[in-house]
Amino acid sequence: xxxxxxxxxxxxxxxxxxxxxxxxxxxxxxxxxxxxxxxxxxxxxxxxxxxxxxxxxxxxxxxxxxxxxxxxxxxxxxxxxxxxxxxxxxxxxxxxxxxxxxxxxxxxxxxxxxxxxxxxxxxxxxxxxxxxxxxxxxxxxxxxxxxxxxxxxxxxxxxxxxxxxxxxxxxxxxxxxxxxxxxxxxxxxxxxxxxxxxxxxxxxxxxxxxxxxxxxxxxxxxxxxxxxxxxxxxxxxxxxxxxxxxxxxxxxxxxxxxxxxxxxxxxxxxxxxxxxxxxxxxxxxxxxxxxxxxxxxxxxxxxxxxxxxxxxxxxxxxxxxxxxxxxxxxxxxxxxxxxxxxxxxxxxxxxxxxxxxxxxxxxxxxxxxxxxxxxxxxxxxxxxxxxxxxxxxxxx
Length: 396
Fold this sequence. Notes:
By secondary structure, the protein is an alpha+beta fold. It contains 13 helices and 14 strands.
């Protein structure tokens, strides 16, 4: 099988062997969660190991299990081959043991990809030397042509990282833009879902597409609504914002429509102060939830936010503001008795330090600098910041 660098990779059918192997339940890092570690980092280096899996030796006596036949003869691997179901977990375990003292401090490892991040040049030089020393100590070799050192911006695992925040990889955006009308819709949605944290109201926008998969139909019933949603989705990928690194002062904005709920997590940046998006979340409403009145749909959106971003909001030393269209949140905090639907949310609210919620009508319309982001889910208005630099135009 051809590789991107022009080399060849043996492609061996290990399905029968994989069915007999005892799996190693070692988790790979969750990349979206790991992105939080880069807050405050300004300098990055990216390392790529050469022939990563082949750096692990097969236990003596087990080589015959990896045997394969070619027109030129019978061969046995003496090192861990590509194609084994346990190879990623085994190598991730090995790399975590090699660099364990640096993980979550200034190093992230995802199988054979290593990212070193630091706050300044002097600190970064020391961090790179420490990592290279460890790799040499364990006889791990780098593919120099794929390494980058001391960069203010770096592409890593489908993201573009910088001191300002996280962006989509432009190469992946181009894949979305060039995607033809899908004959296999699930594959397109799986690919796009990787970047859902960058897309406001992702679940609402894709509702026309996901509804086509209901009941697992044998044939895709493509309709005008799905066609419009597909092209709208491609356009939105062009205008996805830079997600800022988080600081403790948050503004949470929630809204609900008849089909879904959504929210944006923002923070105040710069002088004069502007709101910049840090994260998005959204969810389609179930048929039962679509029967809720407007107030209860708003409360459902708040519940989604508090659960989705709990690791950022709960226990924070700074209060955060929730902006909603209705006064239900204020009622929940003051009510002595709560009905069954709102009771769990009322208990959940007491775990968070929430500032007095603002309402859109209480915000001066001419106060452009400090005005929060207010959007309409029904019309899918996707402006995420005020006075941001204009996004690049979509290619024709």
